[in-house]
Specification:
This protein has 452 residues and is α+β, with helices and mostly antiparallel strands. The chain has a domain at 372-451. Helix content is 35%, strand content 23%. The chain is built from 13 helices and 18 strands. It has helices at 25-29, 33-49, 66-83, 96-102, 124-137, 187-194, 263-277, 332-346, 377-385, 392-399, 402-405, 407-425, 429-447, and strands at 2-4, 20-21, 54-62, 92-94, 114-122, 141-143, 146-155, 158-165, 171-176, 180-181, 202-212, 222-225, 234-239, 242-246, 250-252, 286-297, 312-316, 322-326. Strands 2, 3, 4, 5, 11, 12, 13, 14, 15 and 16 form a 10-stranded mixed β-sheet that branches. Strand 17 and strand 18 (322-326) form a beta hairpin. The protein is globular. The termini are far apart. 41% of the residues are buried. The mean pLDDT is 93.
């Protein structure tokens, strides 16, 4: 088994999430009950399979009145039943005074108090590294910074694929029993590479997050605003000593390799910040900003992306390409099971019942600094030598998250980090400076919406 990744692991979508392993309260209101039940089942699996990376998270749902509180209490009661929670973990009512204790930064305007319910939180980048470790320790291989540039004919049950190393430029050909297309927002791109003119099946949506000063909440309990005028849910979540605040849902004409937040999306979050935090968010309170793309299983342009189900679909082309798209982080295990079962059938390989539901995601957990000035040469050595980091952005954005936690500090440490990486990757002085310049330019573009 070979996993081919166009860029770094997680550089497309997987490291730009809200960092939640959850059933999705919003999907209850939309009537997607089967999806919620599946996601809550998978949440339990994640909590048991990787307890060092996934933990329980309490969320406050503040309410404006008794009727609203009763409405959400009924929905969250169903949520808890789907999850099979113990009584101690089920949704409970809280008074305004209790909200002030759990999140001192919140405004004293929620006169009916609210509800506290449980979901899961994780580090998406670390989870991705753990899954990569599980692949290689089970006999699989990884090839990052590699493009799949072409499909050959199917002969004797095998098909040829052409690969190109994006760093060296070298090309190679491999023969495979079956190819699974799990490229998220770029699913249609690979489908058209195999069958030119293939009709698009994936709608692309952009979501952004702000990383804010922790004083805005003042506690370790998250807050959910369950409904905005555009149908989105907003979260304010304690995360690595900061507050992760988002998200938006903006329909896109197609995928982007490095999505940038729109100024209108930033304005949308800032507009609603007073509703959650009771005060406006100043520029000094914003430590980070990032954008990501959602691959939604629906033809583009047919409906508002916020209303599209997060269900996953598996499709097999006439040439035998197995494509899986849609879904979300929480359901990745069950999605993979469906895709692999289909691939075994297409490749006429021996069928084996999936056992991933029994899998424990054990593996190394390196020390990851929460501040740029605590990044060490030894940590960078690990990211390069053990976790395939190949660019400055790989280390500062995905291995450590420093670009998200404190963008200015990450930019300041970039030249030092690049010199360390140069020692491990044998970069020339020219390449070292190119890496620093490319990273600084990327961060400038990421922050541009805040400067308008």
């Amino acid at each position: 088994t070979l996993l081919v990744e166009r860029g770094d692991l997680g550089s497309g979508t997987s490291c730009s999430s809200t960092k939640l392993i959850h059933g999705g309260v919003r999907y209850l209101r939309q009537g997607h009950l089967a999806l919620v039940k599946e996601a809550l089942h998978e949440r339990t699996w994640f909590l048991n399979a990787a307890p060092d990376l996934v933990h329980r998270l309490s969320l406050i749902l503040p309410c404006k009145g008794r009727l609203e509180k009763a409405y959400y209490r009924m929905g969250l009661g169903l949520y808890d039943r789907f999850a099979g929670l113990d009584p101690k973990d089920r949704t409970r009512s809280v008074s305004p005074a209790e909200i002030s204790t759990l999140a001192p930064g919140l405004p004293p305007t929620w006169k009916s108090g609210g509800l506290v319910y449980m979901d899961g939180q994780f580090d998406d980048a670390r989870m991705l590294m753990r899954l990569a470790f599980c692949i290689t320790s089970s006999g699989g291989s990884l090839s990052t910074y590699t493009d799949l540039t072409g499909f050959g004919r199917v002969r004797d049950g095998l098909r040829t694929v052409t690969l190109r190393d994006r760093i060296t430029g070298e090309t190679s050909e491999l023969r495979a029993n079956v190819v699974i297309n799990a490229t998220g927002p770029f699913t249609d791109e690979l489908r058209r590479l195999e069958v030119p003119g293939a009709q698009p099946q994936v709608a692309v949506s952009r979501g952004i997050h702000l990383v804010l000063d922790p004083s805005l909440l003042g506690g370790e309990t998250a807050v959910i605003l369950p409904h905005t005028e555009d149908g989105r849910v907003l979260f304010a979540i304690p995360w690595r000593g900061k507050i992760l605040y988002g998200t938006t849902d903006t329909s896109m004409p197609g995928p982007e390799q490095d999505p940038i937040a729109g100024a209108d999306e930033v304005a949308h979050l800032l507009q609603h910040s007073e509703q959650i935090f009771g005060r406006s968010v100043s520029a000094e309170m914003i430590h980070g900003l990032f954008a990501g793309l959602r691959p939604l299983a629906a033809a583009p342009g047919r409906q508002a992306t916020a209303s599209i189900s997060r269900d996953a679909r598996v499709e097999v082309s006439t040439q035998g390409l197995v494509s899986i798209y849609g879904g979300k982080w929480t359901t990745c295990r069950s999605m993979a099971e469906r895709a692999v079962d289909q691939a075994l059938a297409v490749g006429k390989l021996p069928f084996r019942p999936a056992r991933t539901h029994e899998l424990k995601l054990a593996g190394p957990l390196p020390e990851v600094p929460d501040r740029a000035d605590r990044l060490t040469r030894d940590q960078v050595a690990w990211f390069v030598q053990e976790e395939r980091a190949r660019t400055l952005d790989d280390v500062l954005t995905r291995r450590t998250g420093l670009s998200l936690l404190d963008a200015k500090a990450a930019v300041a440490i970039a030249p030092v980090c690049a010199r360390w990486m140069a020692d491990f990757l044998d970069w020339s002085d020219h390449e070292t400076q190119r890496q620093v310049t490319a990273y600084q330019e990327r961060m400038r573009r990421q922050w541009e919406p805040l400067n308008r």
